[in-house]
Amino acid sequence: MQLKRGLIAYVLLLIASGCSGAAAGDGSSSQALASARLGDASEFEKGALADLVVTQAEYEQAVFATLDCIRERFPELEIEGPYTRPDGFTLGFDFVAHTGNDPSAIEEFSLLVEEADECEEFRASIESVWVEQHIPSGAERQEMRQGFVDCAERIGLEGIDSGMDYSAVLDAVAEHNNRTQDGLAYDCLYEFEVAFYEPFKPAS
Amino acid sequence: MSSQKWRLLAMVVVSALMIPALPPLPVQAATTPCSVIPTTTSSDGTQVSGKVRMNCTSTNRNVCSINVKVQERSFGVISTRNNVTYNYAGCWPVDVTSPTTAANCAGHGTDDWRIQGTGTDDEGDTRTSSGTWKQHTCN
Residue A130 in contact with residue A37, Cβ under 8 Å? Predict the structure, then answer.
């Protein structure tokens, strides 16, 4: 079953990413980030970051290695996923439990989840570079930002302009959705949000 | 109807019967049907922040609480820089986003950050989901 779900997530990711692992921008910020991460990366991460580019296959391997690690070291944790996140190019997975509304049970569950963070040694830096590779630049970035503005206008989300930073955009989307409860503002955001991410700027 | 038309109809029926039935899709028990979607982190150089959305639309459930953690990974070590729980009295909302939760930068330089969200619904099911790791520079 897990293999089947993994396969579905893989196919979704292939479709969402247009069957390539190509960088959306010019690649300079993601390569600079990969270079910066190599210094303190785990041995597994170094394997993917050595050529300063994370391929789709390397990203998927990182996520599956993280999941394998969690399943092996924390078998008591129930995992759902992997699935393609709303951004369309990263993979997520969730931990689930029936805790009741008992704060101590929720706390106990949260502590176990926190322990599983040790398995992020297989994924964190690779995902960070993978995300960086998808941040558009130049005309594409501007086009996507305008796409968000147009989408926002269509659903009645006002006060948006293409020059806003991600935090302001998110505030507007969350406020709108908390009021309307229809999810439409988030549909717009998820489609275009990567154009609002700030690219890595190496220290000069 | 002419015999030719009967023959054609018979061929269509036989062809349809020969198509193997697709296996049924696995049905997954929706033990925790509400989704928890942390946002990507954002930063102004002094703080890193984000929100968590919990969506119970179409589940007949409501949101009771959302916990937001702002996490930083530095030299391979993950630290929770802020940890706030928002309780929704009476478990009223169906699709709600937490307020912005921010963590102050602990030092200078570029590290990877993420938001981790944990939501509990009114039937006592809890889900934890993590946002993407994203680099941020603290000035």
Answer: no
Closest partner residue to B36 (CB to CB) among A42, A94, A128 is A94
Q: What's the pTM value of the predicted model, to 2 decimals? A: 0.85
Compute the mean pLDDT over every residue in chain B, rounded to the nearest whole number: 85
Which residue in B131, B24, B120, B13 sits closest to B72, CA to CA?
B131
User: So what's the pLDDT on residue B93?
Assistant: 87
In angstroms, what CA-CA distances link B100 with A104, B54, B72, B84, B97? 25, 14, 17, 10, 9
Strand partners, B101: B50
For residue B43, what is the nearest residue in chain A, using CA coordinates? A167
Per-window interface: A 113-152 vs B, CB < 8 A: 113-114, 117, 120-121, 123-125, 127-128, 131-132
CB-CB: which of B65, B110, B132 is closest to A36? B110
Give the up-direction half-sphere exposure of residue B109: CA atoms within 13 A in the CB hemisphere: 10
Record the tokens describing residue B45, joined without a space. Answer: 């150089």
